[in-house]
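Q: Two folds, back to back.
A: First:
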Amino acid sequence: MKRLKQWLRNYFGFSQRETSGFLFLLLIMVLAATAPFLFNYLSRPAAYNPLKDQVALDSLAAQLDRNAAAEKYAGKEATGRTPKMPVRLHPFNPNTATAEELMELGVSRYAAGNIIKYRAKAGGFRYKEQLKRIYGLPETLYQQLYPYIDLPAQQTSRSEFNRPGLPDNRNYPNRSAARYERKSYRLQPFDINTADTTELKKIRGIGTKLSARIINFRNKLGGFAHNGQLTEVYGLSPEVVDSLRKYTFIGPEFTPRPLALNTATLDELRAHPYVGFNLARLIIAYRTQHGPFRSPEDIRNIKLVNEEIYQKLKPYLAL
């Protein structure tokens, strides 16, 4: 190495430091040139050995064979316990047939039991299609049995069906029918701001929950200033709102509960449906910085209050 360095210094006129740098740069170039070949050699996959995969496949095949044998044995055992009876189709009445007779027709024991339970609870089968309701009776088997069912194909009309033991009123054509006078009922309009839940529930579509919701909204609002506010009650359908507008009114002398801008607390302001928490904070901050409101219209100086909000609040604002 020393001789190489001495030769380089003499041949190129390098200093000792330049000679060391030249050798280091030369080493880097050699490594860069041989790096691809070295990487390909190191990353070359090992020779494929199929022995491991063959062992795994053999184990999986053996497991599948064991499962198939177990399922086959279970199926044989199950069929051995409940051997299928030979099917002999003949006319039958599901109201009188026993479970054994139904099983001879190809009906399973489960479905036969359901047929007997159904006719005991429902009072018997009256037409063929009722058998479709039986759980466990396949559609294909029902179609095979359909021609042999000793029942009408469709349900008979009520006029043709007479209950046993009951008199037939058709034998008395001259019998006068009892007449009852119907009392006409017409809902009288009522004041929406004084109505209770009983009056509100007289409107079709309003129950206990909706009537309580209307009164709760009315109390928070301070009373309805106009009937258009009914659309703001959560849960009222347009049909119910139309009925309320038709059968309710607002008294001419009614005055909504005022919302005092200069004295109301934060909780009182935020409880109003048209104010909320953010506007309530801004109202408190405004009167703290600028002093009391001189008129209700001063609330327009708050940036959050646009024309729509002001028109909603206007009937309730006071000093």
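A: Second:
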Amino acid sequence: MKAYVFPGQGAQFTGMGKDLYDNNPQAREMMEKANEILGFRITDLMFEGTEEDLKQTKVTQPAIFLHSVVLAKSLGDDFKPDMVAGHSLGEFSALVAAGALSFEEGLKLVSARAHAMQKACEATPSTMAAVLALPDEKVEEICSTIEGEVVAPANYNCPGQVVISGSVAGIDAACAKMLEAGAKRAMKLKVGGAFHSPLMQPAQEELAEAIAAAKFRIPVCPVYQNVDGKPHTDPEEIKANLIAQLTAPVRWTHGVEAMVADGADEFIELGPGNVLQGLVKKIARGVATSGKQ
């Protein structure tokens, strides 16, 4: 069974999507439509922007979403997913690819999400850090011991790789404790803020209104959502999980394990980069992985 997976923030690179734009008329049409909806030429930033340009949350999220969804649409009748999932932002790409949201509504929601998250990042100095080679339970335990600061697990990426999220002082204190406890590495990431933590509460409230107003349909296949790693097809459940996702951890490990348990033996990554293929291989040894970008 085929599982299509869609990357999140961090997968962007200069030149992303240019081949599609140059060689596929449908892709070019969708990208120009995105420029129109967003009110600026995101394609110029995707094709020629600097690393700094692409790192801005309000640019990164729609750029990765656009690249991923255009790839799925460019496959035409060959896109026959048995299940889909996306990492954080990638969940929106997965929902559009599976028909739960229109391309236009998906792009507007991603843009609203990106702006809301950027505002929340600017309101409170915060960051994230990757912790390697500690059990999930140990990471959770250390996060809970940091007093007076916000620190929480944000991404369960694969066994032995958890990203934590919180205030700058809280992350610094947690990293020191992770290393003391035997982590191979505890390194801060170059991100704008504490995604998937309680510090995203203001963004969550803003996004909840936009999601409530959007029209969701039953997807063509189950969508394995980040909040619980389980398959969902009910539009109301999907909406609630999307809202919860902003302040809750991404349970990527759990989602991949659930897809494999439900029969997935081939994972295809659609979008920039190949990060998810690497994570899938670490979670489920022996499954086939490939990607298109």
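Q: And?
A: The beta strands are 2-6, 83-86, 126-132, 151-158, 161-167, 185-188, 223-224, 231-232, 266-270, 288-292.
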